[in-house]
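Batch manifest, entry 17 of 40.
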Amino acid sequence: MKAHWTLGPGPVSPGLRIGLLGGSFDPAHGGHLYVSKIALRALKLDYVWWLVSPGNPLKRIPDALAVRLARARNAALDARIIVTDVEARLGTRYTIDSVTALQKRFAQVHFVWLMGSDNLEKFSQWRRWQALAARIPLAVVRRPGSVLASLHAPLARRIGVSRRLGPAPSLVVLDGPRSFESSTDLRERALGAAAEAMLNLTP
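Output type: structure tokens
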């Protein structure tokens, strides 16, 4: 890991509770906002940082980072949600490295890792996922199509699901009115609309 000294993307005063929501945000959508809002309320977070990744090792090559950052800032719609390229500035690629660097750099902040239940199902594919779970408390927000993920995911079987978030290792599952949006669906719809537009232009 090649970590660099960096300023925080927002307030980092002692005792703040900050949720970290990582991903390629390709594009950012209502599902990201939904996860953030549920976590802000249920966990009494001060802020949520959207960590827009330079590239997700488990996904296709995304659009340019600057494009995804701009889209994410347009989608955030809450002053407590801070969109940042801090992973690019830290020089980290994997979540375990990013979390380790952020905890060392901002040791006075209480970080929580946030994710939708669709990502909980894939969590055991992440690099050093056991070490990540041991470093930072995890909060999962249920999303359509994966509401039972907390029952059978390897992470849940390993550390169990708690009623309240505590020090790591700790996993809580949060619920609320569910958002059906996903980056994959939005990309497919955009490609379909572009293809249809091209057909309409054909003489």
